[in-house]
Amino acid sequence: MRLRWGEVGDAAEYELFRDGVLFDVVGPGSTAFVYAGDGTSTWTVVAVDAAGNRSAPSNAATVTVEADENLC
User: Fold this and answer.
1) What is the dihedral of CA 26, 13, 42, 2, to 10 degrees?
2) SS3 of 53, please?
3) Which candidate, 38, 39, 28, 36, places its Cα nearest to that of 5?
4) Averaged pLDDT for residues 40-64
């Protein structure tokens, strides 16, 4: 699964939330994230500027990923 978002000009980092729980924090040059786990999850992104101000969460994206046993 690849999660992508639009860049925010003054963002110092982006917080990635999976099912409402902080999953990862990526730097300002990142606008995509790859996740290989299976199952259904809902993702949102929050931009954080250098002063620590946080944006509202992005629109939620719910995805279902199923492992292909033939590829393992």
Assistant:
1) -50
2) coil
3) 28
4) 95
Q: Say if CB 29 and CB 17 are below 8 A apart.
A: no
Cα atoms found within 13 Å of the Cα of residue 9, Cβ hemisphere only: 0
Q: 12-49 pLDDT, tens per residue?
A: 999 999 999 999 999 988 888 888 778 899 999 999 99
Do residues 8 and 47 touch, judged by C-beta distance below 8 A? Answer: yes
E-strand ranges in 1-72 read 2-4, 11-18, 21-26, 32-34, 39-49, 61-65
| pTM of the complete model beyond 0.90 | no
Contact residues for 24 (Cβ-Cβ < 8 A; gap 6+): 15, 16, 33
How many Cβ atoms sit within 10 Å of the Cβ of residue 40? Answer: 10
Q: Which two tokens stand for residue 32?
A: 């995509």
